Amino acid sequence: MNNKNLIPLILVLALGLIMGGTFIKYITPPCDDNCTSDSDNNSISNEANPAGSEIDFSSDLTSWQEEWIDYKGTDGISFKYPKFITGLGCSSKSETFFVPTKIFEDAGGQRIYIVPEYYYSDDETQTCRKHIASLDSLQKEGSHKPSQGWSITVNDIEKSDVDIMIKSIYGAGCEMESETAWIKDGINEIKLNSYKDAQGNPTSLDRTVCPTNYVYKILYSEEKKLAVSVILGQECTFWGDGYNKCFDEQIVESLDF
Predict the structure, then answer these.
(1) Of 156, 81, 153, whose CA–CA distance to 114 is shortest?
(2) Contact, 242 vs 86, CB < 8 A?
(3) Nearest Cα to 254, choosing from 76, 121, 79, 128?
(4) Which of 116, 124, 142, 217 is the most exposed place for a label (fewest CB within 10 A)?
């Protein structure tokens, strides 16, 4: 490089230093072999290290403080949820830590997600990766029970259409078997035909037309024509204070609409 070419470069660098380095601040280095970039799934951040080394976990909370937040959706549904929950780590991060709880609601308000803001997991190469939740990634997962957290389905429907909602979530063989008053005034709890065959006779779970071997909650308000469904899963989803408290039941019992 000759001196004539060096002069403009020196002037640009000097200008950047005078302005506090602002022209340099916004330059993002390209992803190298030690990070993952996936534009089709923004639940995965560009944070990864080779096996044997660790991600910077300095932002993780290590002390426990219980605090609850009130949430109210666009359809009038409300509930309380813990501000922090126990985090899921990698094999290289076995100690207990806590992460913020995140709420996402789709544009129509028919799907509300309660998930950890992020979690860690080992990939097939035993590389520890950080997964950050987003509405886009949850919708792409397309499950009524996300891998991390819950999905609450809200439908503004007539009583005669409740079975249509049930079949769309729990399967074509599922339908309402019973309806009883719930703990909140004006809201009924619906139970499915989980242990019935096609003729409505009692049977085992492996022979039922509606195999639901997990905990679920279906609620309906005839006055407000509103149905709410959430699949809790087979075990506790939202742990607090390490693994000493399960918040699942408290969240469900706080549901109101």
Answers:
(1) 81
(2) yes
(3) 79
(4) 124
Euclidean distance between CA atoms 244 and 151, whole angstroms: 24
2: region left, alpha or beta (phi > 0 left; psi from -120 to 50 alpha)? beta
Buried b (16+ CB within 10 A) or exposed e, 171-209: eeebbbeeeeebeeeebbebebbbbbeeeeeebeeeebb
pTM: 0.75
What's the one-letter identity of residue 18?
I
Structure tokens at 135: 């509405």
Query: 35-40: long-range contacts at Cβ-Cβ below 8 A with a sequence spacing of 24 or more?
Result: 36/129, 40/140
Q: Where on the phi/psi map is residue 188: left (φ > 0), alpha (ψ -120 to 50), or beta?
A: beta
CA–CA dist 118, 126 (Å, integer): 18
Give tens-digit pLDDT for 143-186: 889 989 999 999 999 999 999 999 999 999 999 999 999 999 99
